[in-house]
Amino acid sequence: MTSPDHSSFLAAAAALLGPRGFTADADLLAPWLTDWRGRFTGRALAMASPASTAEVAALVRLCAEHRVPLVPQGGNSGMSGGATPDTGGHALLLSLRRMNTIRALDAENRMVTADAGVVLQTLHEAADAAALRFPLTLGGKGSATIGGLVSTNAGGTQVLRHGTMRAMVLGLEAVMADGSVLDTLTPLKKDNRGFDLKQVLIGSEGTMGIVTAATLRLAPRIAGRAVLWAGLASLHDARALLLHAEAHSGTALEGFEVMPSHSLEAVCAYLPSARAPLEQPHAWHALIELVAENAADAADLPARAESLLASAFEAGLIADATIAASETQAEAFWTLRDSIAPAERALGPAVQHDISVPTQLMPAFVEHAVPLIEAAWPGTRAVGFGHLGDGNIHFHVIAPAGVEPAVWQITDGKAISAQVHDLVTEWGGSISAEHGIGQLKRDELARLGDPVALALLRQIKAALDPHGLLNPGKLI
């Protein structure tokens, strides 16, 4: 039963936001109380859906007055349970999906200012209409929002050239825990007035402040691309090919993804229309994308792609390779890469790890970790794939046949994850490369994180959110 204090708060919040902006209806709340992977389900007092920064600020002040925790949520497409409330039922779910306006797009200066609730695909379409692009994409582009991408410092397949969200955010607007509004939306190339406060908020998962808008860097629209597929004997050869491609192609190199034969075979079995790009099997595969941003470079791109492969063959780096003959085939190549995660899931329960190590150590890490995990956990299959250029590997450990999925996940699966995280830490890496900590990895971060860094994070949290109302139980 709702307490008198909560009744007073709920009445005030409902009056502030109106029927479109506030609901306590259990049926309307239900879809947003479970993360999309189905790992976490929580409860909430109600869901607030403000339509402006002013409404967010007023709501946060009201929450501070009544000591009501807030859980910000964008597209609810996160991988670590960072936007799901706990089971206590005392928090307010704060949906930013109604804040979906692109405030300004400056084509001449290649920047855009967008509300936190703007969906990534919508931003892509707006940039394309101005002959520009926002060079970050991921599988959930149809639901992921700008606020969520900023708050988790999202990555994707173009980090090799353009960096993570941290590199693309020029300015931020955010509501702080007391309801004040930090406005750094106007970008300055030089500004030495103290700390770069937006960097405290990027990647903080809504625990330091609530991102309500961002000014983002845009890039020229692609005039042409060449998509290549190469078969390799080892991940070490893939690393050598990456370095060769960087030296050969320079800034034209935009994507470099790797996968073992097991992943490609799983995708071909999973997708009825999928075909392996090369006739012969290979231990490893590399998917490479070269791009051109003007017509002259686009005309030269096929020759540059041919030259890259010819020089790689001559250097003994690849066993076989092909170049997509059409845009349809290029998309088919990328579909193979993008379908690895669901194809692996179709094989049975698994524990997935979004980890990173120093880029130069990634081949050696995979070569070391795969047999180690498989020997320690008989019947499992360890698979690594992902973004070779930035050291981010998706390290999946597939359960033995015949296990009870739910039981295995919380017993052997949990122990396997701890061992993988121990290994990553020993190799100087990170237990979260691009999906955030959320509640999924919070305890592991506390166990393995650098004590000095964790202490500083907690001190900053205490200073910015002294009552612990912003996304409690996440990150730290």
Which features does this protein show?
476 residues, alpha+beta, Uridine Diphospho-n-acetylenolpyruvylglucosamine Reductase, domain 2, 4 domains, seven-stranded antiparallel beta sheet, 18 helices, 20% strand, globular
Could you explain the architecture of this structure?
- The structure is a single chain.
- The chain is an alpha+beta fold and 476 residues long.
- It folds into four domains: 4-98, Uridine Diphospho-n-acetylenolpyruvylglucosamine Reductase, domain 2; 102-220, Uridine Diphospho-n-acetylenolpyruvylglucosamine Reductase, domain 3 (2-Layer Sandwich); 225-340, Alpha-Beta Plaits (2-Layer Sandwich); 348-435, Alpha-Beta Plaits, CATH 3.30.70.
- The chain has helices at 4-21, 26-29, 53-66, 120-129, 146-151, 159-162, 165-168, 198-201, 235-249, 261-270, 295-314, 327-338, 340-346, 362-376, 405-410, 412-426, 442-448, 451-464, and strands at 22-23, 46-48, 70-73, 92-95, 102-106, 111-115, 132-133, 169-175, 181-183, 210-217, 219-220, 224-232, 253-260, 284-292, 320-323, 350-356, 381-387, 392-398.
- It has a seven-stranded antiparallel β-sheet with strand order 15-12-14-13-17-18-16, sandwiched between helices. The protein has a five-stranded antiparallel β-sheet with strand order 5-6-10-8-9.
- Helix 10 packs across helix 13 (340-346).
- The longest helix is centred in the middle third of the chain and has 20 residues, at 295-314.
- The radius of gyration is 23 Å and the shape is globular.
- The model has no long low-confidence stretch (mean pLDDT 94).
